[in-house]
Design a protein that fits this description.
Length: 119
Amino acid sequence: MWICPKCGEKLEEQFGSCWRCSSLRPAEPAQEPAGSEPGGDQPPGWKLSYQFFRGTLATWDDLFTKAAYFATEVGPERVLNISHSVDDADGVVTVWYWEPKEDAADAAPSASETSSPSP
Ligand SMILES: [Zn+2]
């Protein structure tokens, strides 16, 4: 069943045009599947960041202790991975973690200092 947009006559599906006013049957709006694929494992509003600890004179114990302290500060929910490597006899411990994406509107706290502060 479709309704003629011109005269409002109710018509059966098999008719391609209105028998009353001869206007053609309007094309039905294409129903596209709604919804987009989520883009990967990264949660929205978060970006992957890292902090590395290195030092020629530092021992592994010292670097791991610093990395562990940093990872504790970040929190268990946000720490993705902790890796370590030796770069030219220089130990490097890297802590990978998620940090919230900064909004551009909130990222300029120093701009208010240049302007006159409100009393
Ligand atoms: Zn009609």
